[in-house]
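Researcher: Here's the sequence for the chain we discussed earlier.
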Amino acid sequence: MSIEFLLTSLVIVITPGTGVLYTMAAGLSRGTKASVVASVGCTLGIVPHILAAITGLAALLHTSAVAFQTLKYLGVAYLLYMAWSTWRDKGNLLVEKDKEPRPASRVILSGILLNVLNPKLTIFFFAFLPQFVSTGAPDAVWKMVELSAVFMAMTFVVFVGYGAFAAAIRTHVISRPKILSWLRRGFAGAFAGLAASLAFTDK
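Model: Thanks. This is the structure I predict for it:
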């Protein structure tokens, strides 16, 4: 495994996106445990894209405009839903120590959907993994599986770090309605911005 792969993966993972926003929102609203659960969901959401890249299904998205556009707009719709629900639900970022936790399964499912409905990830892995694997090698598939596992582990660790940071500062926003309001609007705007970015993404 090359240092180039590790460094490139780290840069990609630490770049804020939907997963980071979701994990930080969980950490701010419900603490470290919730952010870890959210990180699990976002990390699992990468699996379908990795499998698609490894099995060659990404080639279909790369060559079929209909397939790409369909998945893309499903992702846009879900991001807009996240923006809308975050904006209107004033309790979504309400920080309370005795707040009833959301079911872990629901948090994980939302995290999975955020990443599954993003066709850019499939195209990314389709273009990214072959750069570090000799396609003619007999163990090329297993090598891509190994690299993908490392990428997922790195994603989980970084997301947990983001979530832990958000959870650490949550005590500073307790009982500060204005800060909570701006945070809620900021997350809603960020989700909407990501939706717009995805909507205008071409192959």
